């Protein structure tokens, strides 16, 4: 969220993956210089008897001026979202089981998990939580009111009948003061990105599940050369509107797009050693990438300005507190 996005303040990024007590919060001070991050806190075991993957996001959910952490479960975690207070390291609220079960699946496999992001979608000063479904089931987005933990809105992206995973991001793409909802389509088809207006999603009279989400659509476009994309949103050119940061599943590339036109702004090739797909997080003028499954965990942080990408930090393997080479399932950053 914007509270953590100022160039004059430290940037916080939460990191999540597989395992117990492996959710460090990386704090980068002094934007513009190369740094090793400070590990601020770790909430430890989030769910009893669940040792699978977590995905993560950050935002000031309770509007106390301190950035809070959002964790979303992976396969077998009951489709759980847990919001942890950044000031006290306690749970603010949590929800679970909001998406349909996978047809024909049993046990933990029936709930393959979800993706999380934050934005103040209804512009009340509390960051809200955007949740996208993962796995082979109808693509769906749920938006939870940060202040109350109650459902604000839900809709189905990518057109009627879509079943792809829904990677999510939040940011004010059109600059109207309402956080907008960004979705990136998972693998298995064209790499589609859609942007929905927070103002239109939460307008009076749309408190029932949104049957025609296209009425709130600001922009939809297909990312050329992609097969599955991760998304983030932040203001990259200081114009008061969030650009879209897109990480590719099928190549070591991260790109920035104009969220209202869908036009490509800039691309950074991460090189052949960066494997497993590119998970992304962003703050104003900063992009973080994390490696996906099948390789030892890697995180890189870039400062971005005017088409120039400057590497501020590169963390691999044991340099990421709480992770080591045994974690081959990849990391999530937010
Ligand atoms: Ca807070
Ligand atoms: Ca809100
Ligand atoms: Ca907006």
How many beta-strand segments? 24
Radius of gyration: 18 Å
Quick one: overall form? globular
User: How far is the first residue's CA from the last residue's CA?
Assistant: 10 Å
Q: Which regions have little confidence, pLDDT < 50, spanning 5+ residues? A: 1-8
Nearest-integer average pLDDT: 89
The major beta sheet can be summarized as: 4 strands, antiparallel
Question: What hetero molecules are in the model?
Answer: calcium ion
Which structural category do the helix and sheet elements fall into?
A: mainly beta
Total number of helices = 1
As a percent range, the share of strand residues is 35-45%
Q: What is the N-to-C succession of helices and strands?
A: EEEEEEEEEEEEEEHEEEEEEEEEE
Order of strands in the sheet with the most strands?
Answer: 3-2-1-24
The residue fraction in helices comes out at: under 10%
Characterise this structure.
It is a single chain. By secondary structure, the protein is mostly beta strands. It has one helix at 198-201; strands spanning 11-16, 25-28, 38-39, 54-59, 68-73, 80-84, 91-96, 114-119, 128-133, 141-144, 151-155, 166-171, 180-185, 192-196, 217-222, 229-234, 243-248, 253-257, 264-269, 278-283, 286-291, 298-305, 308-316, 332-333. The longest helix is centred in the middle third of the chain and has 4 residues, at 198-201. Strands 3-2-1-24 form a four-stranded antiparallel sheet, with no helix packed on it. Strands 4-5-6-7 form a four-stranded antiparallel sheet, with no helix packed on it. The model is unreliable at 1-8 (pLDDT under 50). The protein is globular and about 50 Å long. One calcium ion (CA) binds next to loops.
């Amino acid at each position: 969220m914007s509270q953590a996005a100022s160039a004059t303040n430290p940037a916080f990024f939460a990191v999540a993956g597989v395992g117990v007590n492996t959710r460090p919060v990386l704090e980068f001070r002094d934007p513009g210089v190369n740094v090793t991050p400070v590990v601020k806190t770790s909430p430890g075991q989030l769910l009893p008897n669940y040792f699978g993957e977590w995905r993560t996001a950050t935002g000031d959910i309770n509007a106390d001026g301190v950035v809070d952490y959002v964790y979303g479960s992976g396969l077998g975690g009951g489709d759980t979202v847990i919001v942890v207070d950044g000031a006290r390291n306690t749970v603010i609220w949590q929800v679970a089981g909001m998406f349909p079960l996978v047809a024909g699946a049993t046990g933990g496999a029936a709930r393959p998990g979800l993706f999380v992001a934050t934005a103040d979608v209804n512009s009340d000063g509390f960051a809200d939580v955007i949740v996208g479904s993962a796995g082979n089931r109808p693509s769906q987005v749920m938006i939870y009111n940060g202040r109350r933990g109650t459902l604000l809105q839900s809709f189905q992206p990518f057109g009627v009948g879509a079943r792809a995973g829904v990677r999510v991001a939040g940011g004010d793409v059109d600059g109207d003061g309402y956080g907008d909802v960004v979705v990136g389509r998972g693998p298995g088809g064209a790499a589609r990105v859609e942007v929905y207006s927070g103002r239109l999603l939460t307008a009076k009279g749309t408190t029932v599940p949104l049957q025609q989400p296209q009425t709130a659509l600001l922009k939809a476009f297909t990312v050329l050369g992609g097969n599955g994309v991760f998304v983030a949103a932040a203001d990259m050119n200081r114009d008061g509107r969030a650009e879209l940061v897109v990480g590719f599943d099928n190549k070591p590339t991260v790109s920035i797009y104009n969220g209202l036109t869908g036009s490509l702004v800039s691309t950074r090739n991460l090189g052949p050693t960066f494997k497993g797909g590119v998970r992304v997080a962003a703050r104003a003028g900063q992009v973080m990438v994390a490696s996906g499954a099948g390789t030892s965990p890697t995180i890189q942080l870039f400062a971005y300005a005017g088409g120039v990408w400057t590497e501020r930090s590169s963390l691999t393997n044991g340099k990421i507190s709480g992770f080591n080479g045994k974690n081959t399932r990849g990391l999530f950053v937010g």
